[in-house]
Each structure stands twice: as C-alpha cells, then as structure tokens.
Amino acid sequence: MQRFRDAGEVSRWVVEQGGAPSVAAGYRSGEAAGTGGEVGRVFDLASITKSMTAVAFARSGLDRRAPLAHYLPELAGTHVAEAPLELLLAHRAGMEAHVALFEPILRDEPFDPEIALRTAADAVRPELRGAPLPPEGHPPVYSDMGYALAGVAMARALGLTDAGAAIEKLVVAPLSGGHRSAWALGTARALGAVDYVPTEIVPFRGGEVRGLVHDENAWALTGDGGSGHAGIFGTVAAVLDFGQAVLDALRGDGPLSGFDLGWLVRERPGGTLRAGFDGKSESGSSVGAVMGPRTFGHLGFTGTSLWMDPDADVLVALLTNRVHPTRDNGRLRELRPEAHDALARLAQDHTHP
Which has the closest alpha carbon to 56: 128, 152, 135, 120? Predict the structure, then answer.
C-alpha cells in the first residue's frame, strides 16, 4: 500500500496513473488541512452540484413535502407532478436515470425549455407507470431528472434565475467571505473569466468545453448558469469549505447552520442514496477503506468527489477532469478508492501525529 507525504503527491499519482490530465486534491480534519495539485484552477464539479442544490433547498425554508406541481403548476398532469420534492431529491420518485433533453440541438432544432421540463417530468421508469407513489417513495435509482426539476422548482419559488443562482445565494454567499485567491465557487456566469480546467472535446459544441458546464442537459437548460443537477464550478479549497460547513451545520455550527440538514443525510431504505448525498457501500465503495461506515458525499461525472466522515471529522476532496479529452477514460474509477484512502490517512496523520 503506497504512502503519500502530502496532497500534492496524491494529485501527481492520479495524473501519472492516467486518471486525468488535471488534478487537485485535499483533506481536512479539525485544524489539520492540506491541498495539492492544481489548487488555483477551477473545476467543473458536475454532480457535486446536487449536494449543493439539496443544501440550498434545505436552507430555503421551502416545504420539502410539497408536490412538484405546487411550485411548477405547468407540470400538472405529468407523472411526477404530485411527487414531493423530498422524494425527487432522494432519487425515490421513480424517475429514469437519464433522458437526453438536449437532443433537439443535435437535430439543429430549437430547444424549448418548457417542453424539456415536461419531458423530464414524464420520465418515469416503465415498470412504475401508473403505480401509486408510496409515502417513502419507490426503490431508489440515481437520476439527474429529479434534480433538474427540483432545481427549477426552487428557483421559481425564490424568484431567482435558476438553481445556480439559488446555490450562490444560499450556499456560496455564506461561505465566501474573506477567502484567498485560490477560492472560487459558483456558476460560470457568476465566476466570469477564471482559470477553468477543460473538460471534453465535443464537436457539436464547437470543440473543447471550457468554462461552460460539461453536462449537456444542464448546458441546454441553463447555459452558463446552473441546473439542479450540474453547473457549479469550484477550486478544491472551496469544495473542502463546503464539506466542512455541511459537517458543522449538522452539529448546529458554522455558516450553513440555522436550518435542518439532518434529513438530507439520514439513511433511507433500499440503498445508500440519501437526499443530495450518497453513503458508503458495504463493499467495493469508491470511498475506499479508511473512512468510516457513516461517511457520505458525492461523485461527479467529470471526475470529482467529496466525502465526509462525521464520526472521525475527516473530509477529502478529489477534483479532476477525467473526461478530457474524452469521457471514455474510465481509469479514475480504479484509482479513486486509493486516492481517497491516501487523503484520509493524511488527515489522520496530521490530526494524530
């Protein structure tokens, strides 16, 4: 088992092993903290956005038990119109894992966001069509669709442009005071001209994607803003700050406190998926072996991850652009557990030298 002296060595190892061309990594435990790699660069966080959407929703004061159509009445009559927002956020509304809402763009046809949202709201798994929605929801299947819809509902209720604007108001703003230059978190629209790490080379989008969200549905729905499932960018220091603030808020402390976040991370029947977060699988988890069984966090398709162990007060973040130049690079899947373990050990070693 390889030992690393700092987060910079972990980052270089991921690059050398073919995981991604650009990497930043970090850890935190109490006063012990470290980052390394491309710490000043801004990564597309992909589905870590979902965690921020869920936290923003929890801090918004909106009713998580209200049905989707309460906030988006134009979706009345769709399959998930009466699904509570909490079940959308917990991947338990019976939705398909993914639908290519952006497909009209591939056909050189106009993209209509209203049609796309109705398509998403009707994207229920075939075996569940017509089935009543149990109070605890259907068996969980990870889905972007629920987050795309929940993000629009939250933004509409708050009178904001999109889910990215809600995240900036309810999550980024409380975190962002007085940070150093290597700190950035937000949508591309809000961040402007910063040093973005490139993601994929996508011919129909004009080549290399840089400074715009990689996820095609999010790009079609919100452009340089943010959708509920993708669209937030950040540096590794900012991602660690978000993770620390979530742990602190669960204890009633810190900049994100004052609202109940406990329902987001509580264990739910049927799998490891929470609301905005995933838990650690009993075997074969990408979290690795070092962090404890109550660890929660999220992965991102572009090659990002954030994991938090509330019992050990340890959190680790690994940001990469493993989709550059192509999403076909799956090497990071094999490297993640060892990288997370290495970062968690560094946190432990610096906490208990």
Answer: 152
Q: Does some domain include residue 135?
A: yes
CA 240 to chain centre: 13
Give the contacts of 310 (CB within 8 A, at least 6 positions apart).
247, 250, 265, 294, 295, 296
pTM over 0.90: yes
- φ, ψ (nearest 5 deg) of residue 249: -65, -35
What lies within 8 Å, CB to CB, of 76 at 6+ separation is 69
Same domain, 12 and 102: no
Distance CA 113, CA 215 (A): 15
Eight-state DSSP code of residue 68: H
Domain range for residue 283?
7-49+183-351
Residue range 200-237, pLDDT digits in tens = 999 999 999 999 999 999 999 999 999 999 999 999 99
Within a domain: 228:
yes
User: Would you say 197 and 41 are in contact if contact means Cβ atoms under 8 Å apart?
Assistant: yes
Q: What is the chain's length?
A: 353
In angstroms, the Cα distances linking 151 to 89, 155, 203 are 10, 6, 28
